[in-house]
Amino acid sequence: MNAAEIARHSRAGVAVEVVPETGSTNADLMERAAALDAPLLLVAEHQTAGRGRAGRSWLSAPGDSLTFSLAWKFDAPLQQLAGMPLAVGVALADALAACGVQVQLKWPNDVLKDGSKLAGVLIETQSGAGGIWAVIGIGMNLRMPDEMEARIGRTVAAAPWLAQMDRDQLMATLLDSLAAALAEFSRSGFGAFSARWNRLHAWQGRTVAVLDRGATLYEGLAAGVDDSGRLLLDCAEGRMTVLAGDVSLRTREA
């Protein structure tokens, strides 16, 4: 990919850097956040130490995925940034729909295609003078060779149609959608996204378990999210809300 071409195709006005290889684009931007004075998109052709939530690894092969991070500054306190991963999911879904790929969203940070994971979001923050830098890391599968799926150890999704697109234009489309969503999130919070997220909710009405380190904390029917991004769960005792934190979600059949 070419940074100048991505910037040329984009309307976001965000600086773009492309590197052939790095350990983690999130780690790189977290190290640089204190010195940044404007948003920055960092794209890696290949990541050797990509990370997901709760310290999980994100495995990818050169040319078969998109791995990138966007650093964005917020003036709001950290507690007002709750729901940002879900807003990012909506932005990704909008961009992919514009490219002809329909997806759904799984709480709190996964993009699903045909029921399997296509993309994941990892957001890390760093407080500094004048605000908080959020580093939004995204890994998205384009092709999924059998040997890579075997290494991952579960069924995952791919989007071969996207793999045939011009990569610079695809990256610019994703950047524009993310930049617009983050600006809207900064103005209005997750409440501006909750209805859209709920329309894309993959597990609406299904029985799910909320897990913490493999132990089931709660079980009930998934009923979408509220305006803060909390999962709504209809349990035997009534409706409850679940904060994301480090918990994960599974359907009963899983």
Automatic annotation (TrEMBL):
Ligase recorded as keyword: yes
Reactions that this protein is recorded to catalyse: biotin + L-lysyl-[protein] + ATP = N(6)-biotinyl-L-lysyl-[protein] + AMP + diphosphate + H(+)
InterPro entries, sorted: aa-tRNA-synth_II/BPL/LPL (IPR045864), Biotin_CoA_COase_ligase (IPR004408), BPL_C (IPR003142), BPL_LPL_catalytic (IPR004143), Transcriptional_repressor_C (IPR008988)
Gene3D superfamilies: 2.30.30.100, Bira Bifunctional Protein, Domain 2
Source species, domain of life: Bacteria
Gene Ontology cellular component terms for the protein in this record: cytoplasm
BPL/LPL catalytic domain ranges (all copies): 1-186
Protein name: biotin--[biotin carboxyl-carrier protein] ligase
GO molecular function: ATP binding; biotin--[biotin carboxyl-carrier protein] ligase activity
